[in-house]
Amino acid sequence: MKVIDLSLALLAAVCSAQASATIEYSTVTGYFLQDEAATDPSTFDYTAVNFGLIDRAYPADSEKKNHCETKTLTQWERFYNQVEKLNRDSDEDVEYKVLFLGRHGEGFHNAAESYFGTPAWNCYWAELDGNSTASWRDAALTPNGVDQALVAHNFWQKLIQEQNIHTPDDYYVSPLTRTLQTANYTFEGLNLPHGSAQFKPVVKELFREGISIHTCDHRRSKSYIHNLFPKWHIEKHFAEDDELWNGVTSETSDAQDARSVQALGEVFFSSSSKKHSFVSVTSHSGEIGSILRVVGHRPFRLNTGAVIPVLVKAEKRKDHAPAPTTTVAWTTEPHCTVPPVTSGSVCVCPSSAAPVTTPLVTDL
């Protein structure tokens, strides 16, 4: 079977799973500054405002037998009690989880896009493996990207020491190199609280970036990932080679959202799920944007290395309507075969190099 045929078959399966999903998601607002329209994503610094957790009272506070005890708890300890109360008081068809959605640090593809400009990047340079100075196929972190991940590491350690924050019960990470590295720099070596879950993330295919014709979205092999972090878990049925990227077709927003629904459905309502109410997902700007759409959160674009926590309610639907049989289509992206002529906002191929829809081949 050709790669493109296999990709379409796999995505049809994902869309079919999404169509038959029986879980509805919603964001529980009022807990984080990122939920509020007045918070500007472009200037927001999660490390300056306690991950955005709002200083407020919770219904769970009144359940403490000793009110003085509540006053001595940190905001994050009280928030943990509130999430536990929400799960404790909900029926078996409802779950609440706090998703810590972390974007990878700056990758070489991010630096290249800044250098070439977004129009030229999208229609030519991103389809190459790299140039004479850098490689961006399944891009690694730049030194600046490493520093951004270490900022997250230090901030987690600060909140562990000063706020006794409940660290993630489960860790998930996209299979692309920049996210693998970011998760490792962020969480490896933290002095975790006694009894907390150890950092052994699950590498999850469906939490990868939106799949475009850009080579930075083409993941490496399962063997490469295992050799890079041999103690990590790679989910079952993870293919040795990337069967979704083909360099010709790109995921639409609707198709990516279908994938995100499927991914979340494999995180919620699992065994002991209500006891695992804090979850870390190290992913990408586009995929985090998709997850936020799926859970009904307002758009909130993250800078490289940033993190957004979201309190999500998941509820199993009561109806049993038959699943639709349609799938979500992808789109074909034309691109230039030589460096384009560009303006500030568009990409124009030279007249001698009409746009094509086949992968570019380089010697890099």
Automatic annotation (TrEMBL):
Entry-linked Gene3D superfamilies: Phosphoglycerate mutase-like (3.40.50.1240)
Signal peptide: 1-19
Keywords: Signal
Keyword Signal attached: yes
Keyword flag Translocase: no
GO CC terms in record: cytoplasm
UniProt GO MF annotations: phosphatase activity
One Pfam family it belongs to: His_Phos_1
Coiled-coil segments: none
InterPro entries: His_Pase_superF_clade-1, His_PPase_superfam, PGM_Phosphatase
PANTHER family: ANCHORED PROTEIN, PUTATIVE (AFU_ORTHOLOGUE AFUA_1G10590)-RELATED, BROAD-SPECIFICITY PHOSPHATASE YOR283W-RELATED
Protein name as catalogued: GPI anchored protein
Organism: Penicillium ucsense
